[in-house]
Amino acid sequence: xTKKKMKYGYARVSTMDQDLQLQIDALKSYGVNKIYKExxxxxxxxxxxxxxxxxxxxxxSELVVWKLDRLGRNSFDLIKLHKxxxxxxxxxxxxxxxxxxxxxxxKMLYTIMSSFAEMERSVLSERTKAGxxxxxxxxxxxxxxxxxxxxAKAEKVLKLYRDFVVPGYMSVKEACLSxxxxxxxxxxxxxxxxxxx
Length: 197
Prior knowledge:
It is a single chain. It contains seven helices and five strands. The chain has 197 residues and is an alpha/beta fold. It has two domains: 7-108, Rossmann fold (3-Layer(aba) Sandwich), CATH 3.40.50; 151-194. A five-stranded mixed β-sheet has the order 2-1-3-4-5, with helices on both faces. The longest helix has 34 residues, at 104-137. It is elongated. The N and C termini lie far apart (84 Å). One of its GO terms (molecular function) is DNA binding. Residues 6-139 form the Resolvase/invertase-type recombinase catalytic domain. The active site is at residue 14.
């Protein structure tokens, strides 16, 4: 009696507020035995869930993904992963692209698709940078609004400055240690306070 091939599904989204359900539904429809889920950027080289899954897979089993880009966005890393799976006799299946890595055509398509995934990521990054530059040129301020993030700490800094630093009982360094802030934050709070007065 031959042992049934295990099919492992891997679903990944890049941020905590994204939903895995579409991928999970596709993996279940494909008939995977177990689904591993991860919420981490595709650009990250450190995908602990994927690493653990691959490490625990037996030869002859299948790794099934909804799309190739779920495994990563860098073609070098995808090709390296593909090679590792082939060496360990693990079949890779991409449901959306209809790619299986155990055929000559599948191997070729895998290489092409991983290159497209990397190109798509680069294009998106270029568009984002161009959009940010255009916004800056139009005078739109980017980033967090300047201000005091911790009012209690700011008040402590002001009190220390007024009551101890100005009269000479304490140095700025000692006041920073007492307030639990760095010198830059200390002066930032003083500057913002003087603007608001």
